[in-house]
Fold these 2 entries.
Entry 1:
Amino acid sequence: MSDSPGLAGARIPLPGPAIAAAVTLVLIAIGIAIGGKVIVHQVVSGLLLGAIYMTVAVAFTLTIGVLNFLNFTIPTLFMLTGMAAWGLLSGGYLSLAGRGAWLAALACGVVVAVAASLLVERLTFRYLKMKHGDATEHAIPLVSSLGFLIIFENLVLISMGSDSQRFAVPFRADLHIAGIVVGVPQLVSCALAVAVVAALSFVLKRTKVGRALRTIAENPDTASLLGVDVGRVVPVVFVLTGLLAGVAGALFTVNYGDVSPFMGDNVGTKAIAAMVLGGVGSIWGAIAGGLVVGLAETLSIQFFGGDSVAMTVWGLVLVIVVLRPKGLFGGATIGKGKM
Amino acid sequence: MSGYLSGVLAIFCVNLIFAYGIFVTAAAGQINLGGAGFQAIGAYATGWLAGQAGLPIGVSIVAAALITALVGFLISFPVLRTRGVYMVLATFAFGEVIAGFLLHSDVFGGAMGMVVPLHVELWVLVVGAAVTTLATFYLMATRLGLAMRAVNDDEDASIVMGVNVRAVQVAAFTIGGAFTGLSGALYALNFGFVEAQYFNALLSIYILLYVLIGGTQTAWGPLVGTVFFTILPELFRVGGSARYLIFGIVIVFMMALRPEGIVTRSLIRRLSFRGGAHAS
């Protein structure tokens, strides 16, 4: 009996991808049937945007699934990647890398995100666990992560200003597939996002550390009785979180070509929406949810105008949370316990 | 009184009432991360009632508080089906839906915001804040307040002791809604203008943090938390991002060293000379 949500996606892997693919195909088919080419274009760009949401949503769902902890620093890790990359590039620190400087900058950005995530682990989760027993059952880490959200965002504001900055990527190419224009960077980043999530899924399912993570997700006490060194495995979650948020931030930077201290806010909230839609704690749920939110965003802009996005997405979330708290694809054991 | 000082005092009063609205639900063990949505309902209701419908100021304030209380009552039923992280997410979603709706609605001015033609002076805000504070102290001393504390501390034990947990939680949401709506009403009438962008997720987060850092065990918590985070920075003339940076650092350290908040029951007991009179 566990109060923790558990990693549903890791346990029932087969239906997940099938459902995600089916949902995607059905939505594309509906789009083509209703609106023709314009809609297809919106669907494609929705899916590409959804790939970013998906990666961030997987970071959220992983932390909740294993540690029962809603980590509000994830949007800032996403933002730190972009801003650190821009800071390094514009400061001229990477001139040695020559034409690949932008790539080196983004790689450094991801490293910064992972380091920041480990700092959060060190100063909130680990410390609190030692002092107050099982911190996962409490709102304390949540509030602490909100504190870190404020700290990171304002550190960036103080050191780099509040302006949106241009992050130029030296390649720009479009593919024309059956009359639809798709940017190559978008396509590459979509593929990369899928690869990262697939790799994570493999790690959870097949490796020793993945098995340890799933055991902790089931029950931390039993895990440590069975010989899992919880104190050493928990940082892995934070490394993965930083990695996922960082990769998503780097891809977003490449796709949209600018960075700002607030770039994580919108993506972060949409990713939370995606996670809830798909089912908290389920990796495949987060993937499907991310794609659904990306699609809902571009399609609701197409049909109802730009202001309607928040209402469409969050209305959907509210309905899901109330009617089916485990989400569209979630496992059955969530929503219990008091944080 | 200088315009600057009265501006600080006005926002302090509004935030204090808002914080008490969030506190009442938190005292009963429910975390509401959609507070800005409730406040927006109060603000827009007042703006519409006093502006378009032409009602007197007093009537619009009371009506706005009642409308928000009703929303709190109605939303508590679906929200209370969820717990823990899920309740945080559900209330967060509620706040986002309200903000999204107001941003999209033509009746309430959409992204352009809405001008509120009537005005209340600062003293009304001060009176409102004082009344809310005293009302919360009274509430926490009643049987309902005791039941709220019991539900917060141990839900199962409260059920065994005969507390109607669901009724207490619904009552907490309703009363919290009324307070939050009142804060929105006074905000709208004092500032004369409301826009959906003001009632964003960050506002909900900040007010929730005031309450949690102040402490949810006693009614002193929101007062101390709000003073700590709105008046102190003004006194020390810390502005802009530096203020929020310090705010964030304080939160992280508070959670590590004193996660129950600044004011706790045992602190009150130690400070008061009545000793056992506050046994809890």
Entry 2:
Amino acid sequence: MSFLAANGSALLFYVFAALAVVAALGVVTLRNPMYGAIALLLTFLSVAVLFLLRHAEFLAMVQIFVYGGGIMVLFLFVIMLVNLHRLKETRLYWGQSPAVLVLGVLLLLFFGYFFVHAAFGPAFTQPQTFVRAGGVDGVGNSQAVAWSLYRDYLLPFEVASLFLLIAMIGAVVLGRRQ
Amino acid sequence: MLAVTTQHYLILSFLLFAIGLSGILLRKNMITVLMSIELVLNSVNINLIAFSYQWSNLTGQIFSIFTITVAAGEAAVGLGILIAFFRLRDTTSLERASELKG
């Protein structure tokens, strides 16, 4: 019991990291896109838990709302909209799959070597200074993010809203029936 | 006591990135390719959050909000293209997207 109490967050990390990786593999390997979308949803929710473990509570909620809610509904609607007949007889992968797999393993070894040997030292965790807004310490993650977003990053925030408007108009124009 | 460090997050993020990239390169179904792109963008977010915690700096979290914005826009436009392509070819297989192939 004390082992669980001492290592709870690490165990949570390993469980949800494994879940995220397995579900991501499912996205790539499952034949039916509907099952792939459900696997993708599982990945998003696991990643949201990992965000919580790194004290990004606001981002975890945004992850669930935007990815788990908005983007997943969009995907599911489109999958149901397009008629996926002849799914059985189509081939799943391109012909150059072995070459891609070899390249992927090489990439894995390359980055794995650097990630394992990169030492960042212990995390600089001082929760009091991590969530800080308007000169006040320890206010909570959402408040700190909002303070930073609406003061220091106001222009990028407005540009992002413009970007979303353009994306919406683009999607409507593309989906329109001629 | 088990400790989860930034390296753990980097390795997880790289695994998700590699899986997503292989999905983009390998799969023939356009819907799955779009979902793999979402996986790649999400793995970038994991990196940003991990480094935000590592150096106790909120900028990483702010930046990942913008990544999520871009992912949402990309999904909307990508699925719009998918619908238009399906109207044209009556399939979602990328094999049929060969108009520019000589």
